Amino acid sequence: MNYLLQPLGDQALRIELLDKNTAIRTICTHLIAGSLPGVVDIVPGISSITIFYEYPTSDYMILKEKVLGILETMPACESEVSKRTVLLPTLYDGPDLASLADKHQTAVEEIIEKHSSAAYEVAMLGFLPGFPYLNGLPPSLETPRLATPRSKVPAGSVGIGGNQTGVYPVDSPGGWNLIGRTPIPLFLPDVEDSFLLQAGDKVRFQAISEKEFALWQEKVPQSAWKKEVIFNHEDN
Hints:
The chain is of the alpha+beta class. Helices cover 24% and strands 29% of the residues. A hairpin with a 4-residue loop joins strand 1 and strand 2.
């Protein structure tokens, strides 16, 4: 396992993981079990882990020594593979769909076909509660974010930002290219286990009609929101 440790401000340590397939969640589990002194939070990213601590209970040099001890005695581990695949029915009617087709010199139908036929994986949740950064976007659909972000993007909007796709879980400002929307809530603050997705999940988008969109909205009450869309608990 290749990594780089560095301070982040005066009360955080950042572990930069240099191997793409390093199991970030497994490392976090070991760090949590290590009862690191003064640590108040451990935050995983796409290719890094940030450990926040309180000074003077701990400091960078103390924490660095403890973290190195954990990392160097860990067994080799590869990236975890989630056994969940989540289906997101999607109405492809986004305001940027036509301009995206123009940019890529193709038809709207081709954009929809490519996006909905790809297999994605949740790299991490961030930016907003439950916002998934999804790897697996076909290279031909890679598109820079908007030069001027929108002041409000509706919850459920499916967008493309650079080489990733994602779904806005709540109304929010945002600069991703919007290509559609899903009726499935990704974040429900008032239910137990509020997030639909977790890092490592597989995600597929299924193109649906406007009528089907309305039917899905009726079909998935809050009490059954996950059961309806997690359609495969085994690896594909």
